[in-house]
Design a protein that fits this description.
By secondary structure, the chain is of the alpha+beta class. The chain contains 12 helices and 16 strands. The protein has 3 domains: 5-108; 111-227 and 253-259, no CATH class; 288-427, no CATH class. The strands form 3 sheets. The chain has a 6-stranded antiparallel β-barrel with strand order 1-2-3-6-5-4. A two-stranded antiparallel ribbon has the order 7-14. The protein has a two-stranded antiparallel ribbon with strand order 9-10.
């Protein structure tokens, strides 16, 4: 999904495979897939359906393509000119999912046993490689240079998601073989995330959701948004690889490779508890999805600050407390105080020196911006101070998520102790 492409070919509907129309499929890494079809499947000026579940294609280089969840965006009408032949109308389709490498006739067959993907900044977060020794021996006269390289592929990292799905972080290696005459050699290690079932099939949407849930955990670890770079699907009883293309919001807008020092925490910080943390993260995300989404949305709506950023986090407080405690009713002030009392860690005092003032500022501001009551206007937080209050609240709620996921409070405090100034000095009083 990192490279744009354009495929010419013939396209047809699964129930009418001999009625084929020429067209061009274009993929743009920022905008997704678009199909320009020359002519209509019904041979009329306008298509019968604005939406098609599936359109199949065969490209000029014999690729099998399945386009899923397709919408007609624009129809180019035929211009009638007296005494001339009628031109072929064109239709532009927005394609939500493109599967390169297979033909699937109906949506019920969109089931797979495994999904694999590469994720932006994932390799840097794992920070494990198999290079045991790289020893160049360079004499002063630069003759007979000797370079000794030793590499052993690291073991995969496995974890359980639930009773049906498991996950695995794999270390894949590409390298050159010895040739008769060799001018170059290389060893390239890449990481990917694999989510799979040994005996069951899952819908494409279910597998994509699992990838999305893992990406959200990585977003907290990086304290920056991330996204998939490449995605592959695998069907039951076959090892054939199907590459999946789909639009991803925010991709390529902030392409900065991160090093360990620029992450909130990395894999080595949680290595001992990683399998348990993953299992609990997936469980909690599905259990308290609205709260997780409200908090994680802050990482993807970074264009400018608005009051909605604050109100979304205030709403997340109620959803998060309700999901953790299963107490369905309660005052906002009580819920926030309870979270502060149970999840506050010592290093947060540098951002929130007065917990009672913090709670009061959030409560008053939430009431004012929700109801716009004049009773709260004078005491509410405004402008830059509201933006900083929102940032502090976001940091605290991220801590709640991580502690609930299985990172002990003492361990999280140790991890963040040396990072809190680097990441959040703009939120200091």
């Amino acid at each position: 999904m990192t490279e744009n492409f354009k495929y010419s070919g013939t396209w047809f509907l699964p129930h009418d495979k001999f009625n084929r129309k020429p067209g061009v499929l274009t993929y743009d890494k920022e905008d997704g897939c678009m199909l320009e079809l020359f002519g209509n499947f019904n041979d009329q000026p306008y298509p019968d359906n604005v939406q098609e579940d599936i359109i199949l294609g065969v490209t000029e280089d014999s690729r099998e393509i399945t386009l899923y969840n397709v919408f007609a965006l624009k129809v180019g009408g035929t211009k009638l000119v007296t005494g001339r032949e009628v031109g072929v109308p064109s239709i532009f389709y927005r394609v939500n999912y493109c599967l390169d490498g297979t033909h699937i006739d109906n949506t019920n067959e969109l089931k797979f046993t495994k999904i694999c993907c590469e994720i932006f900044n994932f390799e840097e977060w794992i920070k494990i490689d198999g290079f045991e020794k790289i020893e160049p021996q360079i004499p002063p006269n630069l003759e007979k240079i000797n370079i000794d390289i030793s590499y052993t592929s690291p073991a995969s990292i496995s974890f359980k998601i639930d009773e049906g799905l498991s996950g695995k972080i794999r270390f894949n290696v590409n390298f050159t073989f010895r040739q008769f005459f060799q001018k170059e050699a290389y060893i390239i290690q890449k990481n990917d995330l694999s989510i799979f079932s040994d005996d069951s099939e899952f819908t494409m949407n279910d597998l994509l959701e699992s990838i999305h849930i893992f990406e959200n955990f990585l977003t907290l670890a990086l304290y920056s948004r991330t996204y998939t770079l490449k995605t592959y699907l695998y069907r039951k009883d076959t090892n054939s690889q199907i590459e999946l293309y789909y639009p991803v919001r925010g991709r390529y807008k902030d392409e900065k490779k991160r090093i360990t020092e620029n992450m909130l925490f990395n894999y080595s910080d949680i290595e001992d508890d990683f399998p348990l943390i993953m299992e609990r993260w997936f469980y909690n995300f599905k259990k308290i999805r609205p709260a997780f989404n409200l908090i994680l949305e802050q990482f993807y709506s970074t264009e400018r600050f608005s009051i909605n950023n604050f109100l979304n986090l205030a709403q997340a407080i109620e959803a998060l407390h309700k999901g953790i405690t299963e107490i369905r009713s309660g005052e906002f002030h009580t819920r926030l105080s309870d979270l502060i009392n149970n999840y506050f860690i010592d290093c947060l005092y540098r951002l929130i020196p007065d917990k009672e003032k913090f709670i009061e500022d959030i409560k008053i501001s939430r009431n004012y911006y929700t109801h716009y009551s004049p009773n709260y206007e004078e005491r509410s937080v405004k402008g830059v101070d509201l933006m900083k209050l929102t940032g502090r609240l976001q940091v605290f709620l991220v801590c709640v998520l991580l502690i609930e996921t299985g990172i002990p409070k003492e361990k999280l405090n140790e991890i963040l102790q040396n990072k809190i100034y680097q990441f959040f000095n703009n939120l200091y009083y």
